[in-house]
Every structure is written in structure tokens, then in C-alpha cells.
Amino acid sequence: MYAYDTRDEIFEWEQTGFYLVYLIVAAFIGFYLLPKYFYANRLGLFWGWTIGIITLLYFVEELVLEPIIVGGERAEHISGFFSTLAGIVPIIFMMVAFNLLVDAYRKQKELEQLKLVVKDSELKYLKNQINPHFLFNHLNNLYAYSLEQSAKTPIIILELSTVLRYMLYDCKDDFVSLTGEIEHLENFIELNKLPLENRGDVRFHKEIQNSTFSIAPLILSVFVENAFKHSAAGLSSGIYIDIAVKCDESGKLTLTCRNNFASNRNVAGITKGLGLKNVKKRLALVYPNMHELIVSEANSEYYVELSLQLAK
């Protein structure tokens, strides 16, 4: 029969004792020296402390641990410094490396959470810029009509209040129903048509095959507002603005907006205005890799095509 050798058990207990000491040293390096010196970029102090502690561990192991744990003739033999370190250092650094991996994982999670907070804050900031920008433009129009005592002033006030009600009360969430956004877009177009009077033709076409999708609010209206600004900036007649919105069964939404402008006027300030910069940032944040924006200018015509992949 197999005879059980108690030396194996003694050897295991010896190794366990040494590993416990190594674990304490590794924990000191990982939980104290790393945060205090290594992460603070004080590398000289970190390596100085680390080398000192490992050197101290060598003498503790040879002069204290071996006599207590091992005893006998083996305890009286002092091993070579480098040969002992060759056995200690890999074990210590494996334990420290594990601690580094845990720290890296935790910091990655914190970074992802911070990115979400920053993204949410930036989106709220961008959305909050829309209302003042919108009000600034349309209150100027309303002021001009009131000076002329135009009969359209009450109509403008009514349309403006409808649009503002949607902006202030229906756009609190990150996403709104596509039906509500399209209805807002129609009201927005009607509001912008009023100052044009008989100076041109505005057409709006919609083809919504599936209206159950959601969309980030007030993105489409920025391009429509720019179209009116381009045309009204220098044309006293012959204005045309053509707007179309389509959404297929899969939720792919396409907005096309085409308008003319006076070729002798510089539209660079309009095309690089706050509204367009704002909406480009929002598209990058809300629809990363899920949108395509084409903006072109040729032959006194400005053209925008926006494609979005909506979700329910």
C-alpha cells in the first residue's frame, strides 16, 4: 500500500507561510505604494520603497522566517541574495500585477461613467441653447411687425406660442415621438412662412410609413430655420424652399431641404452659425455612426440631406 509521507504536508505548510508573507508585502506595495507614489508619478520614491522592502524581505525570510517555519540545518544555511530574489520577486510582482489589473478595471468603469455624465451634461447644454437662439430670431421679427402694426402680429404670436409650448414642455426627455416632432416641424414652417408673405413659395412634403419611432427633439427644425434664413437674407422675391421628410418601415428617416439664396451675398456666417454647430454636436453625441449629413452649396442653391437611423 502507498505510504503517506508527512514531509509533503510539512512542505505545503512551509510554502503557505512564505506565501502569506509575500501576500502582505504585495498588498503593501499594491494598496499603499502604488496610490501614494506610482499613480502620483513619484516614480523615484516608488521604486526606492519597493527595492528597499524586497531587500528587507530577503533578510526577514533568511534570518526570521526560515528558522521559525523550517528550522533545522536548512534554516542555518543563508541562500544567495540574487537566487532568493529570483524566487521572491516574480511572486510579488504577479500579486502586484493582479492589483494593477483590478485598479485598471475600476478606473475604466469610472471613466465610462464620467463619459456618460459629461455626455448628458453637454446634451442638456446644447438643448438649452436652442430656445434662446430661437427666441432671439423670432422676437426680432415680432418686434418689426408690431412697429408696423401689422395684422399678422396676433397670428405670429399664436404660432410662436404653439412652437414654444412644444419646446418648453414636450422636449424635456432625450427622445420624443416622431409624430409629435413632425407636427412641431409643420408648425415651425408655418411660423417661418409668415414673414415671407408673397415673396416666394414654400413646400413641405412628408411620407411617414411608420410613426412608432422616437427621435431626438429639435434637430430637424435647425435645418429648416437655416433654409429660411438663407433665402430671406438677400432675396426680395422668387424665394423657393422645398422641405421633405421621409421615414420608412425600418426607421430610417431622411430630411432633405433645398432653398435658393442671393449669390452676391456671403452666406458663410449663416452656414457656420450657432444653430448648425449646435446640431452637428448633438448628432455626434446622440447618433454616433447612425447619421449622415450632406451640406452643399452650388448655383445659388443650398442643399441639406440628413439621414438618421431611429429607434423605438
Provide a compact summary of the structure.
The chain is α+β, with helices and mostly antiparallel strands and 312 residues long. The protein is built from 9 helices and 7 strands.
CATH architectural grouping of the largest domain: 2-Layer Sandwich
Counting DSSP E segments of at least 2 residues, the number of strands comes to: 7
Which CATH class of the largest domain applies here? Answer: Alpha Beta
Task: Let me know the CATH homologous superfamily of the largest domain.
Answer: Histidine kinase-like ATPase, C-terminal domain
Rg is 36 Å
Percentage of residues in DSSP E strands: 15-25%
How far from one another are the termini?
72 Å
CATH topology of the largest domain: Heat Shock Protein 90
Strand order of the largest sheet: 2-4-5-7-6
The structural class is alpha+beta
pLDDT averaged residue by residue: 77
Q: Runs with pLDDT <50, length 5+? A: 1-11, 72-78
How would you name the oligomeric state of the polypeptide chains in this document?
single chain
Name the helix and strand elements from N-terminus to C-terminus, one letter apiece.
HHHHHEHEEHEEHHEE
- Tell me the domain tally: 2
Note the overall shape: rod-shaped
Describe this structure in words.
This protein is of the alpha+beta class and 312 residues long. It has two domains: 6-110, no CATH class; 151-309, Heat Shock Protein 90 (2-Layer Sandwich). Helices cover 64% and strands 15% of the residues. The protein contains nine helices and seven strands, in the order αααααβαββαββααββ. It has helices at 6-38, 43-70, 72-76, 81-147, 153-170, 178-193, 220-234, 268-271, 274-286, and strands at 176-177, 200-208, 214-215, 239-247, 252-260, 291-298, 301-309. The strands form two sheets. The protein has a five-stranded mixed β-sheet, covered by helices on one side. A hairpin with a 4-residue loop joins strand 4 (239-247) and strand 5. It is rod-shaped and about 105 Å long. The termini are far apart.
